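S.,

Sequence below, as promised.
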Amino acid sequence: MESGMRPISIVIPTYNAVGQVEHLLQRLQHFHEKYLDGVQVIIADDGSRDDTVAAVQRGYPWIDVVANQENRGFGQNVMSGVALARHPYLATINTDVELVGNIFKALIGALEDDDRLFAAMPLIYNRNLDKVENLARLYCHRGLCWHTELAIEEEWSSIVRDLMTGAVDMKARLRDIARNTRPTSANSADGSAIHGSSWLQKTTSML
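The prediction came back faster than expected:
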């Protein structure tokens, strides 16, 4: 396995995912080839009525598959995949996510750099909405309702939109953003602040 990233298990919940999950699995194939057994991918299928399980097993024999016979609901389905995880770090990804770069390495780095953190998530840019996902809603769903600054959502939406549409050197632009964008922070349960600027600085250094 190539050095540079801690082992991680990635759970992907599926339901009737033929025609949707293939792009993500092709991207994860790259991580499998680069890191070998250091990246474990687990498909947790929630009783699909199409060919999802068989298609994954045919096309990606290195992926672990949990084929639930009944529809158990999102939470139980995800946990059936988590039960197979064998690595110290765990990620869950929906089937329609498009991965850009090595987000796993950046998130693991954030967790290892601050022992107060137990979980981390990247910014998610919704192409249909043409904006970063509603940060206030995402934070509240994760029990962080004290952080509801919608201005931050628009700030990051503008940054990502600029990167996606501008004819610029993306690496250079990200480094410029890391130097000049004010920190994004949320208060943790103990009253301390979790800042995003240093995380962005680390992320750009990995590009």
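The chain is about 40% helix and 15% strand.

Coffee later?
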